[in-house]
Protein: TetR family transcriptional regulator
Amino acid sequence: MSDQPPKNSRLRDAVRTQAEILDVATREFAERGYAGARVDEIAALTRTTKRMIYYYFGGKEQLYIKVLERAYTGIREAEQAVDVTGLDPAEAIRHLAQLTFDHHTEHADFIRLVSIENIHRAEHLAKSETLAKAGTPVIDLISGILARGREQGVFRDDTDAVDVHMMISSFAVFPVANQHTFGTLFGRDPLDPARRAHYRRMLGDMVVAYLRTGS
Amino acid sequence: MSDQPPKNSRLRDAVRTQAEILDVATREFAERGYAGARVDEIAALTRTTKRMIYYYFGGKEQLYIKVLERAYTGIREAEQAVDVTGLDPAEAIRHLAQLTFDHHTEHADFIRLVSIENIHRAEHLAKSETLAKAGTPVIDLISGILARGREQGVFRDDTDAVDVHMMISSFAVFPVANQHTFGTLFGRDPLDPARRAHYRRMLGDMVVAYLRTGS
DNA sequence: CGGCTAATGTACGAACTGGTTCGTTAGTAG
DNA sequence: CTACTAACGAACCAGTTCGTACATTAGCCG
Structure:
């Protein structure tokens, strides 16, 4: 039981300070949008000062881009971890769709950042070198599933992987992205646990039913 | 060919001034978000001055709420104009879905405002008396179609009108709401005319295929 | 045609906000 | 132990932004 100082006992720790700024900034940008986010507010919620944001990131915009990059990295990693070996095509696409649904409904901040970025016509996304060249593993995965489905004659063949990904994403994103307007107008919280489970099944059924329909 | 002064020759016209402010404000808010929109900019794009925005609307937030109300009124009216008499249930739901798709892809400003409003957790929507109590005609329409479909034994019965509306909306909203991030990441503009027609058909097929699947 | 009021324009100010300047200190290499 | 540098903090600044006070006038009503 020695009293060794824990790693973060260092008063000055570049890595930790940067990580803390990114964490707080992610919340702030997701919460208030790019224009609505306040650099001073981010600094205040950190153990450090505004000075360090400019020291490490250069400015509000560069910080926002880093936040975006980190958020997208999260979903890329989740996608790469998906394994559908041993599943028949219908089971495979359902599995992938429902994992996508789970990921989105569990990462509202990410969805909010994407919405915000679309309001800005993806101008920051375009500026990011990391994200521009990063591949999209999920497309390859879907391509493989679709190919198998067609070989076996169980899937239609007039829709490609990107289209199917869009179909899945649409239904996985909507309850999160439009939770509040939808909830207000229809008096029904789309993320209520029971409803969420129902939508999860709906999504799987929907994608499989669509793909099985003759073209 | 008399030289009668046209109606808008009046230098002072309350109705016209208010309408012009609302038009410009809609564009500005949809373009830059609530926090990003500038009252001075809205005024500058109008034939009148900032003074009048405060005179007629009271402030930035009330103006934004009016903009929201007008945008929602547009889609309400479109929904009320939908007529599916004479169509069998599958045809009817496909028709409605594709009209929804058309409306959304043609009204990007509305979709952007909805995204923005969700970032703000629908707090302005909640403040609007007009919108809070306004009904949602489309739900009744869908209810009727679903009921007929079930009577005829062609539709599953574990999904209600609001759920089906959400399914339709998801796929109709996504290409517009996420046009830029999706386009950037997958190198494919989801609103490209050819693609748009393909997605329109996909949506119809998808909803019908889903509803026909046994529960 | 006189006067009353809705409608309008100008100029300004207080608070906010992104970014910077200047100086300080913790940690470590030698 | 010393000296050097990466890491840091406080105060400040210039430009912006929502909102308002004050002055003015178009258009209508009797």
The radius of gyration of chain A is 21 Å. Chain A touches chain B through 54 residues (CB under 8 Å). The mean pLDDT of chain A is 94.
